[in-house]
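Reminder to self: tokens first, then the designed residues, so the page reads top to bottom the way the pipeline ran.
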């Protein structure tokens, strides 16, 4: 990789600023000052700016416990974006794999890897999303079969894909769906005459929300979690 590109991918510097830093003689490769932007950086080359080692930021995979009153847009709008809760370099390279509504809490996956997030969001990939749901009206056991068979949502063609409903008590349940239609969980309960009062995402595929992560906190996924998708 060219040295100016390496600097851009390791820091917040633009290509023109990287060239300026190079010209000033602040950049060393394996201890030798290099001013040539086209210098080829090898995989083992130690690149430093003002004596501080820099490294290319690779693909990033993150989980966050989304608080209420935040949105999964990449920019702040009426509500704050979950990305602006993160103090992290190159936030503009990150996006959210599977959005939650402003009033929904829980597991949000954030990444720079578009192919990886496609495996989460594409209905064809059958990646289950499990929600803890509180509803207004008592839940009937018959709903387990209704959701397993699929329900008709307003303004949608065809039934929802089979979903797994696990009733906990009269007004609490866990629902696992493998699609991500707009407001899907709320609309599924609305389709059967009920109303969602609280919604929290607990899991995406095999990735479970970390119990210790407080609302608004985040951590990098483990290699095992990344590979599980
Ligand atoms: N379904 C919803 O209705 N809302 C969410 O935030 C996620 C799934």
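Designed residues (229 positions):
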């Amino acid at each position: 990789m060219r040295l100016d590109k390496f600097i851009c991918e390791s820091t917040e510097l633009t290509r023109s600023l990287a060239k300026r830093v190079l010209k000033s003689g602040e950049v060393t490769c394996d201890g030798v000052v290099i001013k040539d932007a086209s210098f080829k950086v090898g995989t083992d080359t130690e690149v430093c700016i003002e004596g501080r080692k820099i490294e290319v930021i690779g693909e990033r995979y993150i989980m966050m416990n989304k608080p209420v009153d935040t949105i999964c847009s990449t920019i702040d709008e009426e509500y704050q974006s979950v990305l602006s809760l993160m103090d992290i370099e190159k936030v503009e390279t990150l996006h959210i794999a599977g959005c939650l509504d402003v009033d929904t809490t829980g597991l949000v996956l954030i990444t720079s890897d578009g192919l990886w997030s496609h495996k989460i969001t594409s209905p064809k990939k059958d990646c289950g999303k499990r929600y803890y749901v509180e509803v207004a009206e008592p839940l009937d056991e018959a709903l387990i079969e209704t959701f397993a068979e699929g329900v008709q949502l307003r303004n949608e063609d065809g039934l929802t894909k089979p979903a797994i409903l696990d009733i906990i008590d009269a007004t609490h349940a866990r629902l696992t769906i493998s699609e991500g239609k707009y407001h899907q969980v709320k609309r599924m309960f609305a389709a059967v005459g009920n109303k969602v009062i609280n919604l929290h995402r607990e899991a995406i595929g095999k990735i479970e929300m970390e119990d210790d992560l407080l609302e608004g906190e985040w951590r990098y996924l483990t290699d095992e979690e990344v590979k599980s998708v």
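The radius of gyration is 23 Å.
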